[in-house]
Design goal:
This protein has 3 domains: 217 residues, HUPs (Rossmann fold), CATH 3.40.50; 78 residues, Tyrosyl-Transfer RNA Synthetase; 73 residues, Roll (Structural Genomics Hypothetical 15.5 Kd Protein In mrcA-pckA Intergenic Region, Chain A). It is built from 18 helices and 11 strands. It has a 6-stranded mixed beta sheet, sandwiched between helices.
């Protein structure tokens, strides 16, 4: 590595910005100073095919380290995905089929390499080592840990206290993730703060088998668009990195103001000094928070699409949400009069993707969030008077143009 690259890590941007904890930081710094190319472990279970901004926090760190000459070892958890890691949840995960794993992994990797340098990444599948495991290997691995150690993990402990089911296979999960570190000779493992326990088990197992223990690089969990819970596709509070520019821009603009500066820090390259100025200007009421958020939306859309796409998305946002005009590119939903009658509005809302369920649709109606051609609807029978081309809107961001089946 060139001298300038060797010392670039001294910039606090690498060790401080977007970092929750490094275990052990002194060891990690010594590895950086050694001048050798480090093996950076990033594992993923292809239980979901899509990457959102929450994932991007850690992936951006990997890219920074790649630019210093280090190598990412991407482990596809084709075995652990069939167990399901319950981190942050209180129920046993559904096991995935091999076909589901393969399909999800392909989509995930297509998106992964939008952020991480493909040329400095080695992709490995757990089946390369676990496919050769026999019962004796499993017994040897599990004999190194106790049930008490596994129950020290917070989500397991909570479920145990609540008398909720914990399958034996779930207890295997941290040990299998730990063995991944042994199999690839990991120098540093990356994960969100919810992965701390699993990563530390890997560090301990490496020490047990005589390897130098990996360091653990933990990144913060990004709060989702609801402003409360960590970003998650299952919670619907996510911003996907492949979403269309208009949709991505609109979701960023829906963020609570209190999250703006965290997003600037964790998922953009806006300099720290500029973020600090935003904070000072907002606190002193020298700037409208909406204008700062529009800058954030431009930065994020430009990162995953282009500056031109970000400018177009902002123009569309101004037109629709500031001037109250309809979107220029509306999707169309065709409805039919089965038996000569219009379907219930809640049924159409679910079919058109405007509500998660019919009960959710009725809740939105009761809140006055549903409009047909800018008029609040008056109940389930509202579609009886809808004409071809009528626009059904839910909230401020979801629109669909209706047409009747001919």
């Amino acid at each position: 590595m060139e001298t300038t690259k060797k010392t670039a890590w001294l910039d606090d941007g690498l060790l401080r910005r977007g970092v929750a904890e490094i275990i052990v930081e002194e060891e990690f710094i010594a590895k950086l100073e050694s001048g050798r190319s480090l093996r950076l472990k990033e594992g993923f279970d292809p239980s979901s095919p899509d990457i959102h901004l929450g994932h991007a926090v850690g992936l951006r760190k990997l890219r920074q380290l790649q630019e210093l000459g280090h190598k990412v070892i991407l482990i596809v958890g084709d075995w652990t995905a069939q167990i399901g890691d319950p981190s942050g949840v209180s129920t046993t995960r559904r096991m995935l089929s091999p076909d589901e794993v393969q399909t999800n992994a392909k989509t995930y990797m297509d998106q992964f390499f939008r952020i991480v340098d493909r040329g400095r990444t080695e992709v490995m599948w757990q089946s390369e080592w676990f496919g050769k495991f026999n019962l004796a290997d499993v017994v040897r691995l599990t004999s190194r840990f106790t049930v008490a150690q596994m129950l020290a993990r917070e989500d397991f402990a909570k479920r145990f206290e609540a008398n909720s089911p914990i399958s034996v296979t779930e207890l295997l999960y941290p040990m299998m993730q730990a063995y991944d570190s042994v199999a690839i000779g990991s120098d540093v493992e990356f994960g969100g703060t919810d992965q701390k326990f699993n990563c530390l088990v890997g560090r301990e197992l490496q020490r047990m088998v005589g390897q130098d223990p990996q360091d653990v690089f933990l990144t913060p969990l990004l709060v989702g668009t609801d402003g409360t819970l960590k970003m998650s596709k299952s919670l619907g509070n996510y911003i996907g990195i492949t979403e269309p520019p208009d949709q991505m821009y609109g979701k960023v603009m829906s963020l609570p103001d209190a999250l703006m500066l965290d997003y600037f820090e964790l998922v953009t390259d806006v300099p720290n000094a500029e973020i600090a100025q935003f904070r000072a200007d907002i606190e002193a009421q020298r700037v409208n928070p909406r204008d700062v958020k529009m800058r954030l939306a431009r930065e994020i859309v430009a990162q995953f699409h282009s500056a031109e796409a970000a400018a177009a998305a902002e123009q569309e946002f101004r037109r629709v949400f500031q001037r109250r005009e309809k979107p220029t590119d509306l999707s169309t939903f065709t409805i039919s009069r089965a038996g000569g009658r219009a379907p219930a509005l809640s049924e159409v809302m679910v079919a058109a993707g405007l509500a998660a369920s019919r009960s959710d649709a009725r809740r939105l109606m009761a809140q006055g969030a549903v409009r047909l051609d800018d008029e609040k609807i008056d109940g389930e029978a509202a579609l009886e008077k809808a004409t071809d081309g009528a626009v059904l809107r839910v909230g401020r961001r979801r629109f669909v143009r209706l047409e009747w089946e001919k």
